[in-house]
Design goal:
Strands 3-2-1-4-5-6-7 form a 7-stranded parallel β-sheet, sandwiched between helices. A hairpin with a 5-residue loop joins strand 14 and strand 15. Helices cover 38% and strands 21% of the residues. Helix 3 packs across helix 4 and helix 10 packs across helix 12. The protein is an alpha/beta fold.
């Protein structure tokens, strides 16, 4: 049997979630196929974190630390030649796509690209690059928009998964106080500010509520937000994220009654289905592609936006309506029994719909079939 050398290029784990985790899952499941030799190329010093990403099967491939930023085309060319790679696969790394295209073309090997299109504009520049990729994998319905625009692009719909054996309910961790969760990187697009402002309205009416924030807290914007939280004496618990710590992340999900996803734009918010795996319903901005795994009223609620913001590069972001958000938060506080039922339904739906095994199988058949 001929062995195919597959190079997967990723990044450091973030909050035990994000595209580094997606990379790790795909590498893990693909490595179970005996005709593939997997090499994962990541950042210097990240291997110990990477091995802690929430996966259940063994670390059965090589981790190669070799860079600390955007992938350079000459470095990629050297890597391909040195490791005799047959195929390139990268997850989400849009900023290095030109380097990958150059290196793949120079060495005459396929290049597969996976991206949720959460932080880049879908414009003519993007379409031009997509047309040069051997296979473009998209985890949300934006694939229909791309295909309608250019039918020549080889595109496959591939939603991410959730390991429901890891992300599962632990009821004893819940407090009597109603706990709202906000989890993610503290950057402008994620819009933590709106979650805090909506919670402020809720705290004015209830004493037994708390907002638990798990983030990196490492931006200038977060410093101002911290000051606001202290000045208003808000019942906010701030937790520093721990890279590649899935057990801590699962405990955080299980401490909450409701997850707030206030992002202005998103492609596939992994924390939504991870929270649902722990029987935690979700409130999310009704915009873009991040909420398509929410069925309004069954496993969460889609919150209207109050206005749209057009960026200079053509992207359109939505600012969530904080009044509507606080109204739904109010409803959930007063309907805990219904919320618990929604959480149970959410978990069953995740177990049936979002499986990493299915993702790995689709990806394997696509890669091997196109390489034959």
């Amino acid at each position: 049997m001929e062995i195919i050398n597959l190079g997967i290029f990723g990044d450091e784990p973030n909050l035990g979630s994000g595209f580094a985790t997606v990379s790790r899952y795909f590498a893990d499941y693909l490595s179970e196929n005996s005709d593939l030799k997997i090499m994962y190329f990541g950042r210097w010093g990240q291997e110990s974190y990477f091995k802690k990403c929430p996966v259940k099967s063994k670390f059965s491939y090589d981790y190669v630390p070799c860079q600390g930023g955007t992938w350079n085309k000459y470095l990629l060319d050297a890597i391909i030649r040195h490791y005799e790679l047959d195929i390139l696969l990268t997850i989400d790394d849009w900023w290095s796509i030109d380097g990958f295209l150059y290196a793949a073309k120079t060495n005459n090997i396929p290049f597969h690209f996976m991206n949720p299109l959460d932080s880049l504009p879908i414009n003519e520049d993007a379409y031009k690059r997509f047309s040069k990729v051997d296979t473009l994998y998209i985890p949300n319905r934006s694939w229909k928009i791309i295909k309608a625009h250019d039918k020549s692009i080889n595109i496959k719909y591939l939603p991410y998964g959730c390991d429901s054996e890891i992300f599962q309910p632990v009821p004893k961790l819940k407090d009597d106080k109603f706990t709202f969760l906000w989890i993610g990187r503290n950057e402008h697009r994620k819009n933590l500010k709106s979650a805090v402002l909506a919670f402020e309205k809720i705290q004015d009416r209830y004493d037994d509520v708390v907002l638990l924030i798990k983030t990196n807290w490492m931006t200038p914007e977060s410093s101002m937000l911290k000051m606001y939280i202290m000045e208003k004496n808000l019942a906010v618990i701030g937790e520093q994220s721990k890279k590649g710590s899935p057990k801590e992340l699962v405990r955080t999900y299980n401490r909450g009654h409701l997850l707030l996803c206030t992002s202005m734009a998103g492609g596939f918010e992994l924390q939504i289905i991870e929270a649902m795996g722990c029987e935690v319903p979700v409130l999310a901005t009704d915009w873009n592609f991040m909420n398509e795994n929410i069925i309004h009223g069954q496993n969460g609620f889609k919150i209207p936006y109050k206005n749209l913001e057009r960026l200079s590069d053509g992207r359109i972001w939505a600012n969530i309506d904080e009044k509507e958000l606080s109204a739904y938060m109010d409803y959930c506080i007063n309907h805990r029994d219904n919320l618990a039922k929604m959480g149970k339904w959410a978990r069953e739906n995740v177990k049936e719909t979002y499986k990493w095994e299915d993702c790995g199988e689709v990806l394997y058949k696509s890669i091997v079939g196109e390489n034959d």
